[in-house]
Specification:
With 491 residues, the chain is an alpha/beta fold. It folds into three domains: 1-17 and 29-158, Rossmann fold, CATH 3.40.50.980; 171-339 and 357-366, Rossmann fold; 403-476, 2-Layer Sandwich (GMP Synthetase, Chain A, domain 3). Helix content is 34%, strand content 23%. It is built from 15 helices and 24 strands. Strands 2-1-10-9 form a four-stranded mixed β-sheet, with helices on both faces. Strands 4-3-5-6 form a four-stranded parallel β-sheet, with helices on both faces. It starts with a helix and ends in a 15-residue tail after the last strand.
Length: 491
């Protein structure tokens, strides 16, 4: 699916159809395709006029964020989404590395943005909605009104294989790296999601996933390309209210948000229809493994949860469950159906992917790129897994986390975490081990008292091979720290 052409088609054939719904007080108002693409054209005119080559965006989910991103993407300008949870010093390092010339930010992150500018030589900045920014927008508007050509009247400036985005990974243990991604990678995700999920024009969903993560970016472009309407939700803590207000037909979430929504539905009714007043067709969960506990909890309120699996480096693509036929419990989705993308398991049991979704490499990190993408173009995901005859992908563990015991046995912490997470009272768990001592430890955050959980662990141990049994249980008083994509931070 050609992303630029999809936008142009909606602009010309559905100019008055809504692309977004934006909340205002107790109401919401639509932003039409004509207004959206007009705004993209104005921003594209500005960045081209001033010859900007790399633009960074710092802000919560917003209509303005998406306008700037699309304008840069379609103008052939490199755009850098900035993780709002990163500190100013780290952001400055990232933007200095990629040579960002301009930073656009929202009012909410003004203080952080100004700190970044103060420590980043050569970086200019502008705030969404400021008098200065509005002046540039007005100049672009007047220029187009006077006859300046817009990007919609010109051939696409997107070049095959060109790096269009640099998205810094939010790894759980390693220093973030800038993955160079392409429009072709987004298009591969869009096409797979479209064919798997049967998204239609005028369907309703939410812009809830953070746009500084590739999953959120790809979902937003998928909904736009397919003509679905997005209710803009800048605060994930308002998830339930947004689902109710915008009457979302389906949702794209991370597991932690699936759990939050299930709890809210339980508070308001026996099932989703009773609580919200309308059904949720499905939820696609990605970004982190979905536990069986959360899957069952949402199923109990009448909502099917599908799974998706991918990495920043593969433009969020590897596997997506189809909406018709549903999920296979324990799987992370079904392999991409695109003929241009290939997936397989290496001789060592690692999941690999090759095709247009794979990044060009890590920006200015050729040695790390060579470690991740082999000479034949296969991206090594770093995950152990298997693919069954139906194309269902089962991720069995992270290679870097695998515990290798002195006996030669290998233990995947993720497999044990999945089994422990469904025990009574267990809310969060992290498994680690000492290979030399052949001991396995579980650190747990629980709602039940310690005695109940220890008893459940003892019962679980009786079902496990001796080398997998939990030797030590440690209880936490607070939840684990998480990355901005919802993954538990590993030590």
């Amino acid at each position: 699916m050609d992303l630029f052409d999809a936008f142009r088609i909606h602009r010309n054939k559905r100019p008055h159809a809504p692309a977004f719904l934006i909340a205002s007080g107790d109401r919401s108002f639509p932003v039409t395709w004509r207004q959206f693409t007009d705004d993209i054209a104005i921003v594209a005119w500005i960045v081209e006029k001033y010859g900007v080559k790399t633009v960074a965006i710092l802000g919560e989910n917003s209509y303005e964020w998406m306008v700037v991103h699309a304008a840069c993407l379609f103008s052939g300008i490199v755009v850098v989404p900035v993780d709002v949870n990163a500190n100013a010093q780290d952001i400055s390092k990232m933007l200095s590395l990629v040579g960002a010339e301009f930073l656009l930010y929202s009012s909410f992150f003004k203080e952080k943005a100004l700190s970044v500018v103060s420590m980043t030589p050569g970086l200019n900045a502008g705030r969404f909605g400021s008098r200065k920014t509005d002046g540039f927008l007005n100049a672009g508007r007047l220029a187009i009104k006077a006859g300046a050509k817009t990007i919609w009247e010109s051939p696409s400036k997107v070049r095959s294989g060109q790096t269009s985005m640099i998205v810094f990974t939010s790894g759980t243990t390693s220093e973030p790296r800038g993955a160079e991604l392409t429009v072709a990678g987004i298009e591969a995700f869009v096409e797979t999601a479209f064919s798997s999920l049967k998204i239609k024009e005028d369907d309703r969903s939410l812009m809830i996933l953070p746009l500084h993560h590739i999953y959120g970016i790809c979902v937003s472009y998928t909904l736009l390309a397919c003509g679905a309407v997005q209710g803009v939700c800048p605060d994930f803590r308002r998830l339930y209210d947004a689902v109710e207000r915008f009457a979302a037909d389906y949702l794209f979430l991370v597991p932690a948000l699936v759990d939050v929504l299930a709890a809210k539905i339980e508070q308001h009714g026996k099932n989703a229809v009773e609580a919200l007043g309308h059904p949720i067709r499905w939820i696609l969960s990605g970004g982190a493994p979905l536990s069986r506990r959360i899957y069952d909890r949402m199923a109990a309120v009448g909502v099917t949860v599908l799974s998706a699996y991918g990495l920043t480096e593969s433009t969020a693509l590897y596997a997506i469950d189809p909406s018709e036929g549903g999920a296979v419990p324990g799987s992370s989705g079904r392999c991409t159906l695109l003929p241009s993308c290939q997936t397989r398991v290496s001789d060592k049991g690692e999941l690999l992917i090759r095709g247009p979704s794979v990044m060009n490499g890590y920006y200015k990190r050729p040695e790390k790129t060579a470690e991740t993408i082999d000479a034949e173009g296969w991206l090594h995901t770093g995950d152990y897994g298997r693919i069954d005859e139906g194309g269902n992908v089962f991720v069995t563990g992270r290679i870097s986390r695998t515990i290798i015991l002195s006996s030669g046995k290998k233990v995947a912490p993720e497999e044990l975490e999945e089994k422990i997470s469904v025990l009574p009272g267990v809310l969060e768990v992290m498994v680690s081990g000492d290979g030399e001592k052949r001991s396995i430890k579980a650190e747990i955050y629980a709602s039940e008292n310690e005695e109940v959980v220890r008893g459940a662990i003892s019962s679980l141990n009786l079902t496990l091979p001796v080398y997998q049994r939990i030797d030590t249980v440690i209880f936490r008083k607070e939840p684990f720290d998480r990355t901005s994509s919802g993954k538990i931070k590993l030590r």
